[in-house]
Amino acid sequence: MPQKFQRARSEEQRAARREAILDTAADMLAEMPVAQVSLNELSRRVGLAKSNVLRYFESREDVLLELLGSATRELVGHLETALAEAAGPAEPAGRADRLAARVARALADRPVLCDLISAQAAVLERNVSPQVAAQFKRAAIVNATALAGLVATHLPELGQEDAFRFVAATVMVTGSVWAHAQPCAAMLTVYEEDPALAVFRLDFEDTLRETLEVLLSGLLARAERARLGSWAVGEPSEER
Predict the structure, then answer these.
(1) What is the DSSP annotation of 195-225?
(2) What is the DSSP string of 91-104?
(3) Contacts by 195-202 with C-beta closer than 8 Å and gap 24+?
(4) Tell me, what DSSP letter sits at residue 49?
(5) What is the DSSP letter of 59?
(6) Are 126 and 107 in contact (CB under 8 A)?
(7) Is residue 239 one of the residues assigned to a domain?
(8) Which residue spans adopt a coiled-coil conformation according to this UniProt entry (predicted)?
């Protein structure tokens, strides 16, 4: 049953109203993909007129971007523990593979987050004001920096800069792989009728893990070349 609200007259009431809208939108995302979440249905479920919902969030996309930010913060908290548990003596390549596996597993366990990430650039960022966009990006930088810190701790050979590059690339790769790993009914029928075409059907977690492994391998190789190059430049020449 939709909730019935009295007019919010205090900051506490307005904050509660915002939380109710966010909680209702989160419940909807547990039932349906991002593309099917409408402002009309959100308003109906939360028990407010659409115009009243827009007093708290300027658009459907504003609501979903806030949920994306909170879901990302939860992911960072989870990975803080998951990556610590994966720590241990090993060559950089072995630690990199464990890191890729833990990140891929954590994202596969969070389909709503993956769906939001896949819609972020093409949809969610397209119907917000500069103010909301700036607020979202500032929060995204905080989350990415925190995650990069975890990556750099687990794989110090990368350094903080390349750890941040890895995090940024992970977001882009996640969105792309998620979209390709969610085939429509017609594609599923094609794959079933002609197994030879199923080579294009992706398993999300496996594909993401393999892609992140390759990405980390490349970043580590480049970091090693840079280190060796700096050592060679700094090495004193032999006297003749």
Answers:
(1) GGGGGGPPPHHHHHHHHHHHHHHHHHHHHHH
(2) -HHHHHHHHHHHHH
(3) 202/177
(4) -
(5) S
(6) no
(7) no
(8) none
Please tell me the distance from the alpha carbon of residue 79 to that of residue 77, in angstroms, as a whole number: 6
Q: Which residue has the tokens 């072995």?
A: 94
CA dist., res. 51 & res. 55, Å (int): 7
pLDDT at 179 over 70: yes
Count of structural domains within the chain: 2
How far is residue 82's CA from residue 97's CA, in Å, rounded to a whole number?
14
Domain with 222 in it? 58-234
Please tell me the pTM assigned to this model: 0.88
For residue range 112-131, what is the model confidence (pLDDT) as tens digits? 999 999 999 999 999 999 99
Residue 64, SS3?
helix
Domain closes at, from 35, 57, 79? 57
d(CA 87, CA 236): 37
Residues 180 and 159 in one domain: yes
Taking all residues of the chain, what is their mean pLDDT, rounded to a whole number?
91
Q: Using CA of residue 54, residue 123, residue 40, residue 47, what is the dihedral sign?
A: negative
